[in-house]
Specification:
The protein is an alpha/beta fold and about 400 residues long. The chain has 14 helices and 13 strands. Helix content is about 40%, strand content about 15%. It has a 5-stranded mixed β-sheet with strand order 6-5-4-7-8, with helices on both faces. A 5-stranded mixed β-sheet has the order 11-10-9-12-13, with helices on one face. Strands 1-3-2 form a 3-stranded antiparallel β-sheet. α3 crosses α4 and α11 crosses α12. The longest helix has 25 residues. It binds zinc ion. The site of zinc ion has 6 residues, from loops.
Length: about 400
């Protein structure tokens, strides 16, 4: 078994072969039964069985181990669960944050091997980030006995709209990045596939592959945290827009005379519905610096002040969400970000405001026509998981 075999089967030239389709389905979705594979690929069960014999012999696929993550995913499913051989290849996911890189390494069986936050100087350049990441990857691969030749791709998340070619359109974390092609910068440092996307799109990919939206062809991710972001999945595709601006819900202008936003507009939703203002108020009221975690914990403990600040924020966020849903009318909204960890402290006022401002009122709709609202399930590391998921999913879609 070689990485070359796997690379060949993940490439576009094998799009019409049974083995290629099976390998790509396993890369995209992780461990599956033969019945799942037949359903996803459209191949006959007998064709899948025959191809799996060869793939097992080549060492590219194997049965999932009892007790590992793959097995737990299979609970309730009949039949043997099959996975790509973890030794057949690895992918790296990174999120480029304000002053650090968050990175994970996963293998093609969807198991996570290593995770690290790497501190960076503020205002770092993409080239500096790529070189520091390269050093970490080389060290970590050596420590874990992994071959660098098995690195199948790097997914990069940035906090800004990213054009399909990897160009940052308007960087919200480091203004000097606007116009930089991150795909090119990372492509020069690494001799492998590099995919770049906006952080909310990465969150949606993570929830789609492993979280609260598995198998959902249509949903909206609505993320409220230190900022407000979102993503739209429609008909099984992540909507990116012509310039990567799709799902930028935080910059819907609710008040043309409002405060100036860092994007250059006035009165953006994000200005009124992010956690920074509540953190400042709580810090002043309690005489100590409040983190997001502190605020979430305080609200969850039943503190009236923290709950009120979150309810006020949710009221504005609900107005924004009603605009989004009046345009898209999605069957499912995944509520994500730190505030989702406060449960109904956030959700009840959010939905109450949504109902007041939405065009279609939930109360008027039959059950099967109501938009469902659920929490994301990967609330802490969704962005970096989505970055690695972007690569696994890309291989699944090759051809
Ligand atoms: Zn704005």
């Amino acid at each position: 078994m070689t990485e070359q075999n796997l690379r060949a089967l993940l490439g576009p030239k094998t799009s019409d072969t049974a083995a290629g389709r099976i390998v790509r389905a396993l890369s995209e979705r992780g461990p599956l039964t033969a019945a799942d594979i037949a359903r996803m690929t459209g191949l006959a069960r007998s064709t899948v069985s025959t191809a799996l014999v060869d793939l097992r012999l080549s060492g590219l696929v194997r049965d999932a181990d009892v007790g590992d993550d793959a097995e737990s995913k299979a609970v309730g499913r009949p039949g043997t669960v099959i996975t790509l051989n973890p030794e057949a290849g690895t992918c790296v996911g990174v999120h480029l944050a304000l002053d650090e890189i968050r990175a994970v390494i996963a293998d093609v069986s969807h198991s996570f091997i290593a995770e690290q936050n790497i501190a960076l100087p503020k205002d770092y350049s993409p080239t500096v980030a790529a070189n520091i990441l390269k050093g970490w990857i080389e060290t970590t691969y050596a420590e874990n006995g992994l071959r660098l030749s098995g690195l199948l791709g790097i997914g990069v998340s940035v906090s800004a709209p990213v054009s399909p070619d990897g160009t940052v359109n308007r960087s919200s974390i480091v203004p000097t990045w606007a116009g930089v092609n991150v795909s090119e910068v990372f492509g020069k440092a690494f001799n492998t596939l590099v995919l770049v996307d906006n952080e909310s799109n990465c969150s949606a990919i993570a929830e789609w592959m492993w979280g609260g939206a598995v198998g959902e062809p249509d949903f909206v991710l609505f993320k409220v945290d230190l900022g407000v972001g979102g993503a739209v999945v429609s008909n099984g595709k992540l909507m990116r827009g012509v310039a990567g601006g799709s799902g930028e819900f935080g910059h819907i202008s609710l008040d043309p005379d409002g405060e100036l936003c860092r994007c250059g507009n006035r009165g953006c939703l994000e200005l009124m519905a992010n956690l920074q203002r509540p953190l400042r108020i709580l810090s002043a009221a309690h005489g100590r610096e409040f983190t997001v975690e502190d605020a979430v914990d305080l609200a969850n403990s039943g503190d009236a002040g923290a709950m009120r600040l979150i309810a006020d924020l949710a009221d504005v966020a609900g107005r924004g969400l009603a605009i989004v849903c009046s345009i898209l009318n999605p069957p499912l909204v995944l509520v994500s970000g730190a505030l989702a960890r406060t449960g109904n402290v956030f959700l009840e006022p959010l939905l109450s405001s949504y109902e007041r401002h939405a065009h279609l009122k939930t109360r008027d709709l039959p059950p099967e026509r109501k938009t469902r609202f659920v929490f994301g399930t990967l609330l802490k590391n969704d962005v970096v998981l989505g970055a690695v998921g972007m690569v696994l999913r890309h291989h699944g879609r090759a051809g």
